[in-house]
Design brief:
There is one protein chain. By secondary structure, the protein is mainly α. The protein has helices spanning 3-25, 34-44, 51-63, 70-89, 105-109, 111-130, 132-135, 140-154, 159-169, 176-201, 206-235; strands at residues 98-99, 102-103. It has a two-stranded antiparallel sheet.
Length: 236
């Protein structure tokens, strides 16, 4: 087996492990509101590279043994990423009927449930992250720092902020500094979040967490550039 084949095998194994973690933390579809749990599962388990939780885990391993606090944060971050995609797809935003080769959440469950499924994933993400206090109470200080990063990088100073600028500037050419900001926030923020939380939970010192943030910033930029190129070439 050559190095490329070995890498592919390892990636598939890691993705499968992450998907088992996601299934573990999803709410069971029950009660009068069970349709929303079903929509959450449909959205979250739609496939994908699982890049963010993978980066979180691998960064954590750079600094120490894997902590029991890690899995709730891995699931939470992927829920946040997924909710952003669900809301991106609705008619008021990108109005996409398909994602990753299958119908988008609002097409299957209706626009109202698509919006609510995104809302539910965002709220449940933080509920999931808070469960790390139960699984690793001895690491409360690290968990608190990680929650602070999660909230900021997913919010108006991170992913949401990038999405706002993207929507506002759609339809016309934008200056390089505006495009750079969209890349930094819309895509880069959650990658920074993943690696910073991994470093924090792995026991990294604050100086090292800042170094990881800088590395993740450039990973995010590269990822978004590649994604934009693929959007064009796949359309052609």
């Amino acid at each position: 087996m050559n190095s490329k084949e070995e890498f592919t095998v390892q990636m598939k194994r890691k993705v499968a492990e992450i998907e088992e973690i996601l299934k573990e933390y999803l709410p069971k579809p029950e009660g009068y509101q069970k349709v929303i749990m079903e929509a959450m599962e449909y959205s979250l388990m739609a496939g994908g590279k699982r890049l963010r939780p993978m980066l979180m885990r691998e960064t954590s391993r750079l600094f120490g043994d894997e902590t029991e606090a890690l899995c709730p944060f891995m699931a939470a971050l992927e829920m946040i990423h997924t909710y952003s995609l669900v809301h991106d797809d609705i008619p008021a935003m990108d109005n996409d009927a398909y994602r990753r080769g299958r119908k988008t959440t609002h097409i299957v469950y209706g626009e109202d449930m698509g919006i609510l499924a995104g809302d539910a994933l965002l709220n449940y993400a933080f509920e999931t992250a808070f469960r790390s206090f139960e699984t690793a109470p001895q690491e409360s200080l690290k968990i608190g720092r990680a929650l602070s990063v999660l909230g900021r990088k997913a919010g108006v100073y991170g992913m949401i902020g990038g999405q706002v600028i993207d929507v506002k500037e759609t339809g016309h050419a934008v200056p390089k500094d505006v495009l750079d900001t969209i890349y930094e926030l819309k895509t880069g923020a959650l990658i920074e979040c993943a690696m910073m939380i991994g470093a924090i939970l792995g026991g990294a010192e604050e100086e090292d967490v800042r170094k990881v943030e800088k590395i993740a910033h450039y990973v995010g930029i590269a990822f978004q550039i590649q994604d934009d190129i693929l959007d064009v070439t796949s359309t052609e």
